[in-house]
Amino acid sequence: MGEPNLVAMSGFVIFIALSLVITWFAARRTxxxxxxxxxxxxxxxxxxxxxxxxxxxxxxxxxxxAGLVALSGFDGLIYSIGFxxxxxxxxxxxxxxxxxxGRFTFSDVVAFRLRQAPVRVASAAGSLAVIAFYLIAQMVxxxxxxxxxxxxxxxxxxxxxxxxxxxxxxxxxxxxxxWVQIVKAVLLLSGAFxxxxxxxxxxxxxxxxxxxxxxxxxxxxxxxxxxxVSDPVDAISLGLALMFGxxxxxxxxxxxxxxxxxxxxxxxxxxxxxxIGIFYLxxxxxxxxxxxxxxxxxxxxxxxxxxxxxxxxxxxxxxQAFLGFIAAVAFATILAVVAGLTLAGAAALSHDIYxxxxxxxxxxxxxxxxxxxxxxxxxxxxxxxxxxVFKGQNVAYMVxxxxxxxxxxxxxxxxxxxxxxxxxTRGAQASILFGTVATLALIxxxxxxxxxxxxxxxAYFPYRNPGLFTIPLSFIIGIIVSLAAPEPAAAAGFAKLxxxxxxxAPDEDAS
Length: 511
Description:
Blueprint: H1 6-29, H2 33-38, H3 45-56, H4 59-72, H5 77-101, H6 107-110, H7 116-150, H8 154-201, H9 207-218, H10 232-245, H11 250-253, H12 262-293, H13 296-302, H14 309-358, H15 365-389, H16 395-419, H17 425-445, H18 447-453, H19 467-484, H20 488-492, H21 494-503
């Protein structure tokens, strides 16, 4: 580790070359904003299911959860299960209505029967806060990975990822991002299967023998809860954030506009859930495999956050060549997710803010594409900066905070706008802005920032995840503000919204 790895370098080059070829083909098909943001609405259910899984199986999943399990044992399972259980909420409540009501972003749905400008500004703020924390996790994982494999400085490694990602989002848009996600999902699932099989081969393909070896090495406590999340309030808070946060992630919600209709959106979620469920079961094997075969001290010695547990495990069970392959897969994972996040952020800035607030929906196609590409450049620079600032944090934990913001800022407004008739513009603004600001404030006051980052001895807010407090409060504030100042026009538009949720728009292209 820390020395140039020829297999890893070859894998990186091959994946980047493949990405650029996909981008070249995608750029030839990207002529409109619908092509750039939603791949022209032509993605099939299986393709979108793979792309959804690719977007969701991020550095937090592969590197972060494996590291948390390796260092904390059983408690790492809360992230594996938490990331998975949000999908029934998506398939039952979100996928089909979202496709029927919106065009490019979830703000289209929240603003469907409300005043456009105030809602879109608030929604964009919530989306960008989620994207920022999610980007931190990906960039930290990428920086550590490239630094340890190529011997480059962490900051240089983060900058490389930002520049490569920028190239294919800037020119290929959602078409390129979708196909890169599909390739990456297949690679990641294959790599995780191979690595888990090689680990289990050391224990006669008996997971119980692996867990027994972990208990023998580190004591029975590694198979019991309480080492990572010992406070019940923190555990419930984290669980709620992971469950409801999935339904508020901008880059996940944006994927439902890439399919031709609502039914395809729902089927694609079923495919994604199956793929993701299998993958998260494998991460548990990888975490305990790293704990036993690599050792906790060796994992912490390479990276304090434990993010390099899976690559270190690959080196132990398969040597330098397999390490190179797994590292290339992890790099593909990070690059693809960063691309999806950046595209969602660009949509929030250009479609929600510039087109619908500043231009009141009257911008030309050429103008919209130009603004989207400028927004992509800005977000790429921001992601590089955030990756450098948050060096050393566990990437799964950072994504957990992104989920807390999504669950508090986006999810309540999305549900209330679709299913509660009295919901108003002011209610939407209050719910989204409170959810965003309160969650960010409590994260800043929590041990994550005060103790881990700023090195203070204590934190003002004792819990590491604020979801238990901010999610219900966001619902309550949205309801109270809506009841205090009714909006007859918004209530009158509810009948049209209900009809379109169930039957779609008269012209599906306009939905």
